[in-house]
Amino acid sequence: MNSFIRDLEKAISDEWTGYYFYKDLKSRTNNPLYVEFIEHAQKDEKEHYEMFQYLHYLLTGEYYEHKKEKVGFTTFKEGVLRALKDELEGAEFYRDMLLEIPNQQAYKPLFIAMTDEQEHATRFSTIYNSLR
Fold first, then answer.
1. H/E element holding 75?
2. Phi, psi angles (nearest 5°) of residue 107
3. CB-based burial of residue 94 (10 Å sphere; 0-12 exposed, 13-18 middle, 19+ buried)?
4. Which of 10, 66, 69, 94 is placed for a possible disulfide with 114 were both Cys, Cβ 3.0 to 4.6 Å?
5. Which of 13, 21, 18, 19 has its CA nearest to residue 52?
6. What is the pLDDT of residues 39-96, one digit of tens each?
């Protein structure tokens, strides 16, 4: 259970970081489709953060106080590629966490996050491939 909690805490930090990363990334484009795709991922990251914090509370009796980290990038294209890689890694990480769930309450938030990360990867791949 301790390794699951450690992974859950990493997920909480990653989702918080992703939310603010996408806020910054979104500000670097005015393409309506890109903005829509990034906003969708940003909204989901916030929901994942909240679900994981609640799960942490259910499992430990407290919310996780995480470090506030910022993702640095110089160009929009670099940021999109970073987002794509992060989303693919996130889907894999949540899949692995699903195999270690301590109880049934952990299944739904992990499954939702895992499938959302795959969807986000598709969106970021679409953006990345359309950039010249």
1. none
2. -65, -55
3. buried
4. 94
5. 13
6. 999 999 999 999 999 999 999 999 999 888 899 999 999 999 999 999 999 999 999 9
Contact (CB, 8 A) for 6 and 26: no
70: tokens are 């910022």
Q: Which of helix, strand or coil describes residue 31?
A: coil
The DSSP secondary-structure symbol of 103 reads S
- Which helix (H) or strand (E) covers residue 104, if one does? none
| Residue 72, Cβ density class (10 Å: 0-12 exposed, 13-18 middle, ≥19 buried) | exposed
Show the CA angle centred on residue 109, arms to residues 73 and 7, nearest 5°. Answer: 60
Question: Could you tell me the two tokens for 47?
Answer: 């929901």
| Token digits of residue 12 | 């909480």
Residue owning tokens 């950039």: 131
Counting Cα atoms < 13 Å in the Cβ hemisphere of 57 gives 7
Which tokens hold the place of 18?
């992703």
